[in-house]
User: Fold these one by one.
Assistant:
Number 1:
Amino acid sequence: MAEKELIGVDLSQAVWRKSSRSGDSGGNCVEVAGNLPGVVAVRDSKNPTGPALLLSPDAWESFISSLKSGKLD
């Protein structure tokens, strides 16, 4: 999916899940929806009606790989 196609994605069917690194203390939490075709959406769990960052699945996988490898520490 091209970047332009990520604009205006309907998130009404998104199934959000909290990061496994998020605790139950109400602190800084990230939620991810990976059930939408061709897009991974990321949002702040404290602001569920706020904006979401939209990424292609390839960009998301690259980001996660970089996190796991420690490149972003």
Note: The chain is about 25% helix and 20% strand.
Number 2:
Amino acid sequence: MAEAFPDAGLAPTDDERADYYRWLFFAAGPLEAAITNKSMGFTVDPDKERMAGYGNYDQVVDVLDQKLSVSDYICGDRFTMADVYVGAHVDWGQQFGSLPERDSFQAYARRLRDRAAYKASKAVDAALLPDQPTG
């Protein structure tokens, strides 16, 4: 979508492209797998962590925490489409407890929630699903 609508300014620049794709794939692979497995009560045996593709839940959380401790957004100092995807994981994780309450996650989620577009999308959600929590 970011590439299809370049005027929105959400596509990565050439300098941002490596981080952009790295973190999109990280969220879609290791992060989602680790959260899903933990939520379902599945723990990877320590001797099989390399086979799981992500190690273990704590390692995945630590990697994301390290990134968000040194960057305001996934590609550095500006919001991109990668923040829409990674941010959805972090926002959901903070609301529903699938990610621990770490300072970096809370600060990142707060930055995303303060965006006008986030607030507008939540208003749409609330109008369509008035009995559901919208964060």
Note: The domain at 16-126 is CATH 1.20.1050.10 (Glutathione S-transferase Yfyf (Class Pi); Chain A, domain 2).
Number 3:
Amino acid sequence: MMSSPTSSIRLLHWTIAGLTIGALVTGFTLTNTDPFSPYLLKTHLALGLSAGVLALVRTILWLTKGAPASVVAFQSALQQALGKSVHAALRLVPLLLLISGIGMIVISGSLETIANGTFPGLEAFVGLPPAGLHHAAALLLAALIGLHSLAALWHWQRGFYPGRQ
């Protein structure tokens, strides 16, 4: 059964969104700049861990209480199916990022060197099984966020949000 979105669910949504975008930006920056920055890695990990844990909380709420009611008046069954699919992916892909990120740290045994700021660089993660999943999930999440944002803008411009005149 779908419940109506509350202000706490919306706050959770926007907090996860902000943390996730921050994690994506810092992750992209980490993998595309030289020299390596342990501070940027710690920032990426803090944002990603926070977003992942909150995404886990939201997923548990979703599974136990049902998805919040849509704030958009869908025009077709296809739109509704696409919306549900994108929203499910937006709930689950951050969990893949959380699991794969933790997996890279555990498998590489790098937690202590990351914590004390002596981690030498991302080379420690190259070739680890979770690394490919982590990068693919990050690209997928960025694409989903873009698609979601474009769909929200499209719905808003066409007046599909209840109460919009």
Note: The chain has a mean pLDDT of 88.
